[in-house]
Amino acid sequence: MVIKQAELDIVCGITSKLPDTGMPEVAFAGKSNVGKSSLINGLMNRKSLARTSGQPGKTQTINFYKINGERYLVDLPGYGYARVSQAEKEKWGKMIEKYLHTSKNLKAVFLLIDIRHEPSANDCQMYEWILHNGYEPIIIATKLDKLKRSQIQKHLKMIKEGLQLKKGSTVIPFSAETKQGRDEIWEVIESLTDG
Ligand code: GTP
Ligand code: MG
User: Fold this and answer.
1) Confidence band for 150, pLDDT divided at 50, 70 and 90
2) What is the pLDDT of residues 131-148, one digit of tens each?
């Protein structure tokens, strides 16, 4: 994918009305700090257009990145961030749910899981939710560079089993450091948003 143009086009906070962009969208969901914004930067070939942080809870709005004027990558706030109040968590949860529920243009939801860790209860719930709403789930195993090569297969198996993935579902390993997996992810995005 050649990126001719990438811009942060729309930012939605808790009280914002969700937009109808009129263009295909794919969204990136996952636990706080799993690497959603870093993946989006990697896909856009931008170092820091999407703000990232070592501290979880960085992305607190739904951010719509417009790519080449033809589709959107949607960065969602992470779940499971311990340091916000329960009330705040619920508001974000509702906002994410509302987006996933009402978007006319959403084509697929990418679920990011840290390749080092077993999927959490929240991850499993998110996976179920994606399936339940009829979206194509694509699992991205992030932070691939943090594992030794010899550990990778074992960890991919752990993720598949943890989520109880259906046979034939793909898990794409990705590293924001080396960009490994980028081309494969773009292929999937293009196949889901073309035509
Ligand atoms: P929230 O916005 O808080 O939900 O987090 P996020 O999922 O957007 O995570 P973000 O992209 O901000 O990354 C969190 C931290 O993990 C940052 O310090 C990143 O540099 C680091 N990180 C993300 N992806 C990778 C990766 O592939 N490899 C390594 N080594 N670090 C990564
Ligand atoms: Mg983020």
Assistant:
1) very high
2) 888 888 899 999 999 999
At 53, is the secondary structure helix, strand, or coil? coil
| Beta pairing partners, 8 | 65
ipTM metric:
0.99
- Unique residue bearing structure tokens 């942060």: 8
Per-position DSSP letters for 105-130, written without gaps between them: SEEEEEEEEETTSPPPHHHHHHHHHH
Which atom of ligand 1 has the smallest separation from the CA of 52? 12
**Where in the sequence is the domain holding 104, given as residue range(s)?**
6-193
Closest residue (by CA) to atom 12 of ligand 1?
A: 52
- Classify 173 as helix, strand or coil: strand
Tell me which residues have their CB closer than 6 angstroms to ligand 1.
30, 32-38, 52-54, 56-59, 77-78, 142-143, 145-146, 175-177
Burial of 63 (0-12, 13-18, 19+ CB in 10 A): buried
| Tally of domains within the chain | 1
The domain that holds 70 is classified in CATH as 3.40.50.300
HSE, CB side, 13 Å, CA atoms: give it for residue 48: 4
Which of 26, 25, 56, 51 has its CA nearest to residue 38?
51
